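We close this part of the discussion by returning to an individual protein. The sequence in question and its structure tokens are set out directly beneath this paragraph:
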Amino acid sequence: MPKVTLTKEECYCGIAELYDTIAIKLEYNPATVYYDCRKICVSKPVMEQVFAYYKAEKSVTRPAFNQLWLNLGPKANLVGDSYKVDIQKGFVLEAKP
């Protein structure tokens, strides 16, 4: 399972942008792939930075963000204070031509 470390700044974005950043770090072209959000785990600091983005830039409330995260987000179950991501096989799927 690949592991990716992000910066705080890389996590300050929307969920789709977060997935694109991770794909780039895994050497994929985000324009040619799609994602299975069931196949990715992140640390709580990653989730909190994404929330900070939605709150500041999009005026999204915590309850609305929680619903968004449940529908589109990864599991925020990694322990630690760093910006960690664990990828399971099948997270990045290449689009068929």
User: Anything to note?
Assistant: The chain has one domain: 3-94. The longest helix spans residues 44-58.
